Amino acid sequence: MYTLETSQKIPASQAEVWDFISSPVNLKYITPAYMGFDITSRNLPDKMYPGMIITYKVSPLFNFKMDWVTEITHVADQQYFVDEQRIGPYSIWHHQHHLKSIAGGVEMNDIVSYLPPFGPLGSIANRLFIRKKLKEIFDFRTAAIEKKFGKY
Length: 152
Known about the structure:
This protein has helices at about 15-20, 120-150, and strands at about 1-10, 40, 55-60, 65-75, 80-85, 90-100, 105-115. By secondary structure, it is α+β, with helices and mostly antiparallel strands. The termini are far apart.
């Protein structure tokens, strides 16, 4: 099992940041275009809730489209939510999104616990490119959030 942790300070209110990150339609805005990220769920509500299933098409490698299904397993309004992969490229994907008020804004922390498929081959792939790709995706997200809310 591997963990990727990121932290970002945002010059906005907790309510503003929560409204943005808890809306499923905004996922595409914070995902690099080369991922080919498309939400395939129909009639999504404005806000996430526990038990919500969201379906996507993504192209994580070599422009190969695949299904990704996540479930929102936990939500504490304006504090955190957790998404877990049900179908997708990982053997395990557990992503915690946390918000905390700080002077002048909000600190957003993400903890991604993941396990690539294919046992030892997945471990090698993680060392060679998966971890780097995840960091690149979260770096893109940091820039997209800064573009939306400004730099702290």
